[in-house]
Write a structure and sequence with these properties.
By secondary structure, this protein is mainly beta. It has helices at residues 45-51, 167-171, 295-299; strands at 4-6, 16-22, 25-37, 61-62, 65-79, 86-97, 114-125, 147-162, 177-178, 190-192, 196-202, 205-216, 232-236, 238-239, 242-244, 252-254, 265-266, 284-288, 292-293.
Length: 301
């Protein structure tokens, strides 16, 4: 058996909300009343608050607001729907606000994540001449490997977890890219780095305070980003061999050109040679190098 919410609740309940201008800007406030059926007559208010499924925690975000106050009142003796035993029906009045004073949050686990922004300077391939816009290649259409410096945005997210920290959160999220949009960044453009965790003690309780580094492959001076800049490596489709499909029934891998000289061949998607008079850039190969996951949901950030 367990405590449970009846009537209006966090999923289908009716929320009252109001808006006001304060010294800290616009504030949205609201309230919601829950009816909670206790497990037994001996169930305490602390058990109602902490062990009722879907019951809000102080500091938890609901409807774009933080839970700032909870008032619990025993109302009447009733019957538990599962056990059939007598128990208490409680009324829970919950207040919300869009502005949060962390001093009212009893547990660090209920505190929202803290986002610290920065950037990193990295060398990236120069694909286009910054002055003319032309492809960076020789007159014979061979790509030239030149690096340029680019600023990549980064964010370090600080968040509290239960102690000891769950190592599976590292194994299942570090080195992964985002499978859904994250902080406005398209799918596949973020990369979770090495998570660090340390033990802290708050009000005589042990918690794990984690720092989660995330890099965004969003180069403001590069090509327009749509998605998957982290997930796929883009490389020119060129090589020292190609497939001769002049006889469709007997494709042959060749390493020499028509004059029987070795070379670097520009390839079509089927492995055949691109025509020598073709002035368009080499085809690109998208090679998957990073897996994707919804790390935001898994880590609560």
């Amino acid at each position: 058996m367990a405590n449970y919410i009846v009537g209006d609740g966090p999923v289908n309940g009716t929320l009252s909300a109001s808006f006001a201008l304060t010294d800290n800007g616009e504030e949205k406030t609201g309230s919601l009343v829950y009816t909670v059926i206790a497990d037994t007559l001996a169930t305490t208010e602390e058990d109602i608050r902490l062990n009722t499924p879907n019951f809000p925690l102080l500091g938890e975000i609901r409807s774009g607001m933080y839970t700032t106050a909870i008032t619990l009142t025993q109302k009447a003796i009733t019957t538990h729907a599962v056990s059939g035993a007598d128990t208490w029906a409680w009324t829970a009045e919950v207040e919300f606000s869009s502005q949060l004073d962390l001093n009212v949050v009893s547990s660090p686990l209920a505190r929202p994540p803290v986002y610290n922004w920065g950037g990193t300077l990295e060398g990236v391939p120069l694909e286009f001449d910054t002055q003319t816009g032309a492809l960076v290649q020789t007159a014979a259409l061979e790509p030239i490997d030149i690096q340029r410096q680019a600023i990549m945005p980064t964010v370090q997210v600080e968040k509290f977890f239960n102690y000891p920290f769950d190592a599976n959160l590292i194994l299942n999220n570090c080195g992964y890219s985002n499978s859904v949009a994250y902080l406005g960044a398209p799918v596949g453009t973020c990369l979770v780095g090495a998570i660090r965790s340390q033990k802290v003690i708050v009000q005589n309780v042990e918690y794990a305070k984690a720092v989660i580094p995330i890099k965004f492959e969003l180069d403001p001076n590069g090509p327009l980003v749509t998605q998957d800049t982290v997930v796929f490596a883009k490389v020119p489709h060129v090589g020292t061999q190609y497939i001769d499909r002049s006889d469709p029934g007997n494709p042959v891998i060749r390493k020499l050109d028509d004059n029987r000289n070795p070379g670097l061949f520009r390839l079509e998607n089927d492995g055949t040679r691109k025509g020598d008079d073709n002035t368009d850039p080499p085809n690109q190969l998208d090679i998957g190098r990073v897996p994707k996951t919804n790390f935001a949901a898994a880590l609560g950030i």
